[in-house]
Write a structure and sequence with these properties.
By secondary structure, the chain is mostly helical. It is built from 16 helices and 3 strands. The chain is about 65% helix and about 5% strand.
Length: about 425
């Protein structure tokens, strides 16, 4: 009797160990290490730029509070099958629109010319940040078929005019509401994310071209008419000739370039950067935190940070590339584009090759809304990686063939298909 109970206990322990090992093996460890590395860099930079070493720990503690919440939400999303969240996408969209309307109403707070925050006690939330995930989830849901064999007879969502119009309508509503707040940086992210999702989904090339032309025309008209406001116009013109107004519109980027240049190879040392510690570098814990990192850790520190972003983006793209479910692919590609655009824009404005847009550096800049949005998006990517359907025989043997076939789990089209289909179509033919 005792021997039987002991054998049963050993079997239970063995099964538990096997389940644990399987769960660990399904985690993308390089992906998680990149996240941990960037968050650590961010906390160190925030501590340095906000004088936490001398007792001013408010910024650091608030970031830690949002980080704790974000890690919890990341863990929940990573363990949840992303396909079960698809029915909740309309609810999330409605909630996002209501938050954006609340910002434009009496609940909004204006900061640096932008009315984009809702203040709750000592914390502030920025709905335009959460709208990035709403755009990704809505476009991914609209441009993919829900699971079920009855949906196999439906037209390809990426070429269905009704689906395309619905996707454009969702994007248009969010863009208009956020532009009304004076937030141009987030609008840039929405548009670039939409372009990436449309492209990977296989939307017609003519539609993509029309979107690009429409976006450029809309920006030119808004810029020339003064609709964006003087502060936005100054940002877009000062980077071309910052020295023309070194104490005004050009001040931020001049100080940023000076800070990065003074870092040299190994930096001035954490908590020792003159531009950062003596207050010459503006918005040093948010928009220009990359300049603070460059000044205090030098070229080597910058290379490490950019390397961590490269690792994170590579693993995110690999997740999108390896799954055969279209909804999961588009979610991962949307998050990939969101992070890539923000990193390029933030670093670009810091080194004065792009205009200032107020876009934060993901996982590094101070800001609870940005941190939560990024961790939620990366949680979705980890969910896609953990719960992706097993590749079908056709997907493995012929990955570049676009098929409308779908199994009971969801639509199965390899990510290479949109690229291959465009290459196979003669020039001048609409797809």
């Amino acid at each position: 009797m005792i021997a039987s109970q002991s054998a049963g206990a050993r079997r239970l322990r063995s099964q538990a160990s096997a389940r644990f090992l399987t769960s660990v093996q399904r985690l993308d460890l390089p992906f998680l290490l990149a996240i941990a590395g960037l968050v650590t860099v961010g906390l160190g930079a925030i501590a340095s730029t906000t004088n936490a070493v001398n007792g001013d720990t408010g910024y650091l503690f608030r970031q830690l509070a949002f980080l704790t919440i974000g890690i919890g939400l990341f863990s929940v999303l990573a363990r949840t099958d992303y396909r079960t969240l698809r029915p909740l996408v309309p609810v999330g969209l409605v909630g996002t629109i209501l938050l954006l309307l609340a910002v434009l109403g009496p609940f909004g707070t204006r900061v640096n010319g932008t009315k984009g925050w809702i203040r709750i006690a000592s914390f502030s939330i920025q709905p335009a940040e959460f709208a990035k995930l709403a755009v990704i989830a809505c476009l991914a849901a609209i441009l993919s078929r829900p699971k079920g064999r009855l949906n196999d007879r439906l037209p390809d969502p990426a070429t269905d005019p009704r689906r395309l119009m619905s996707a454009l309508a969702v994007l248009g509503v969010i863009v208009i509401l956020v532009l009304a707040e004076g937030e141009t940086g987030s609008v840039l992210v929405y548009c670039m994310v939409a372009m990436a999702v449309f492209f990977i989904a296989g939307a017609p090339t003519r539609l993509l071209g029309l979107l690009v032309v429409s976006g450029i025309l809309a920006f030119v008209l808004a810029f020339s008419s003064g609709l964006l406001g003087d502060h936005v116009a100054d940002r877009f013109t000062s980077f071309l000739d910052a020295e023309a107004d070194p104490r005004g519109a050009g001040y931020n980027q001049i100080q940023s370039v000076t800070a990065i240049g003074s870092g040299g190879l190994i930096g001035q040392g954490v908590f020792n950067g003159p531009q950062t510690q003596f207050g010459f570098l503006p918005e040093k814990q948010t928009d220009f935190i990359f300049a603070a990192v460059g000044e205090e850790t030098g070229f080597l520190g910058v290379v490490i940070v950019l390397g961590l972003y490269g690792l994170l983006l590579w693993r995110t793209f690999e997740t999108a590339k390896s799954t055969t479910d279209r909804f999961g692919q588009l979610l991962a590609i949307g998050v990939f584009a969101m992070i890539l655009v923000q990193v390029v824009q933030n670093v670009g404005m810091t080194i004065r090759v792009l205009p200032i847009t107020g876009i934060p550096l993901p996982l590094v800049s101070y800001g609870g809304s940005s941190l939560l949005t990024t961790l939620l998006g990366l949680g979705l990517v980890q969910s896609v990686q953990r719960h992706r359907p097993a590749p079908t025989v056709s997907a493995v043997s012929a990955p570049i063939v676009l098929s409308d076939e779908s199994d009971a789990v969801g639509e199965e089209v390899p990510i290479e298909a949109p690229f291959a289909r465009r290459a196979a179509v003669p020039l001048g033919t609409d797809v």
